[in-house]
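Subject: mismatched residue count in predicted assembly?

I count 470 residues in my input, but I want to confirm that the predicted structure covers every chain. Input:
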Amino acid sequence: MAETEQKIKEAISRFILDSINLRDLKEDDHLFETGIVNSLFAVQLMTFIEKTFAIEIGSDDLDIENFKSIKATSEFVLKKNGRIAA
Amino acid sequence: MEELVTSSQKAHYGQFKALVATEVEPFVEQWDREQKHPDSIIALLAKSGYLGSTLPLKYGGKAWDFITFGLLNEALGRGSSALTDLITVQGMVSMTLLKWGTDEQREIWLPQLARGETIGAFALTEPGAGSAIESLETKFRRIDGSNNLVLNGQKKWISYGQVAGLFLVFGNLEQKPLACLISQGTPGLEIEPIKEMLGFRAAGLAQINFHDVEVASNNLVGKPGYALSHVAPIGLQYGRISTACSATGLLRGCFEESISYASTRKIASQTLGNIGVIQSMIARMGTDLEAARLLCYAACRAEDEHLPESFAKTLMAKYHSSRAAVRAAADAVQIRGASGCHESSRVARYYRDAKLMEILEGTTQVHEHLIGKMFLDQVKTTSR
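Triage response: the counts match. Full output below for your records.
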């Protein structure tokens, strides 16, 4: 489980760093309060999470606690039985 | 794009073009003059499944892929931008509900939208908030002792607002963006038709006024705080794909009209097409058309594969095709000369409609800001 969680964190971190002009990102950095994820990037990140981890995000999942950091997002993915999609 | 599609997608495209040739193009100038569509053409689009083309079968949709959807918009866009806009907004509302609606909302509204029994309108733009959607002044407030809300405000330039039965409305609740559904006939909802538009004259634009409109809590879409970051972008993405492909269809119309005219119109002893400056216009038009087709194909394919880059690819497709449509329409009128300036001329309508393509679903300047920033971020990432 720990290994899976680490892989999920790495995948999310890589996607964000490849998309946003950032040099570094810690797993507890607040993605919204710091402006790392703005309204234009939010849906791209959501699509990446759905596609990469084979989950579907619905209205009930729209909670800042699920997406506030890389750590929170990876826990959310695991809670939704996400996996690294082929 | 045709050479990249499957035989099934190609067969659909042939059907779309046949319907446009017989049911749209002979009547489109009349619809433009009258600034409305007859119920019969809307009923035909509904019967053909075009109003629910990407919705799942279980909601009465056709479950077509986005490449087929793109071809539908391209074929219809060749005939009528205003009519294609119905496909655009119907999809913007229904696909947003498919993603963020409750089970109850989906089961009530999606079959009606797919069958065309209800027309949807995407009520985001306001008199003072177009591209700057974060500046919305439409406001929700809570009702003491109730879960329901009250809505006040105005929306403007809303396509098909004149005939819509269902409005997806965006506003703010205590500084948090929120979306809701409001059906036609709700007390306090007022529709003011907008006439005499430059283009898209038959698209039934309207101003929508909300005077103390009560919104039941089960009509909220998504949660407070997510309407602009998550709810609206689903509709806008769909709208941009549709508009990009529709603009490509208009561009094809300009190209086909121009090469046909230039190859037959005589100037002294030669045809227009033998003149170098005319060849330059045709060359630019044809090359822009090919580029637009490929960009639209890439956007539709990314959407089909549910890739995060579909957002960027759609921005580029809409940016290029709308600007190229404006250039092509101007050149098509120029090639026609005086006859292209009369309202009976198809290229005159193309010229008027094309300009709106640069404004709908985000202006050219908004697209330049977003695309430019995206490219710059990628360069900095590479050099890290």
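Residues 180 and 200 of chain B are 26 Å apart (CA to CA). Marking this ticket as 'not a bug'.
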